[in-house]
Amino acid sequence: MVSLRCKMLVKAELKKLGLHYVNLTLGEVEVMENISLEQNEQLKIALLKSGLVLMDDKRAILIEKIKNIIIEMVHYTDEIPKTNFSLYLTEKLHYDYTYLANLFSETEGTTVEHFIILHKIEKVKELIIYDELNLTEIAQKLHYSSVAHLSNQFKKITGLTPSYFRKLKNKKRKPIDNV
Question: Do 40 and 5 belong together in one domain?
């Protein structure tokens, strides 16, 4: 689950099956009841029809948790933590960062750092489109060391400068789950 719509969809499917959740966060749900094999299969099929996958592989679940922490941090919180992200991830998941980073790279074919950069650039695009903040404010909000650093990273990922992107009539963003 990488969006609030995904959470709503999961809630609805759980309700149809008569299941109650204790905790529902991006990418994870804790259910009160013991789920029967039949309910599990029905949930799996219903979620698959909506483009979601029910995971039970511990490594895949950990990868999803990493992704969801990054997505939540970049897209759904007002402030990105000022602490080092490796420390932040270690504290959230209670695993050594080296293990998490290696697992992520092996599975996803990219580094955790690159995944964060891609999401930060999508957030920069969103903030440019909203046109409420200037580049200095955007750089500060996303903890870039300078506007130049933000601009270099933006150009490396998109091929455009932030200023040129701002002038475009047809600004293109990617859905969060496609980043």
Answer: yes
150 in the Ramachandran plot: left (φ > 0), alpha (ψ -120 to 50) or beta?
alpha
Regarding whether 41 and 77 lie in a shared domain, the answer is: no
Q: Over 80: is that where the pLDDT of 63 sits?
A: yes
| Of the listed ranges 37-46, 61-70, 78-87, 120-129, the one predicted with least confidence | 78-87
Could you give the CA distance from residue 63 to residue 43 in angstroms, rounded to a whole number?
Answer: 21
CATH number of the domain enclosing 133: 1.10.10.60
Domain count for the chain, please give it. 2
Q: Which of 30, 54, 78 is the last residue of a domain?
A: 54
* Closest residue by Cα to residue 140 from 152, 156, 116, 124: 124
Report how far apart, in Å, the C-alpha atoms of 155 and of each of 33, 50, 145, 164 are. 49, 34, 16, 10
Instruction: Please indicate, yes or no, whether residues 92 and 163 belong to a single structural domain of this protein.
Output: yes
For residue 46, the enclosing domain spans 1-54
Tokens of 85: 């992200």
Amino acid at 122: E
Give residue 1's pLDDT: 47
Q: At 30, give phi and psi (nearest 5°).
A: -115, 120
Q: What residues contact residue 50 under an 8 Å CB cut-off, 6+ apart?
A: 9, 13
What type of residue sits at position 10?
A: V
C-alpha to C-alpha distance for 169 and 171, rounded to whole angstroms: 6
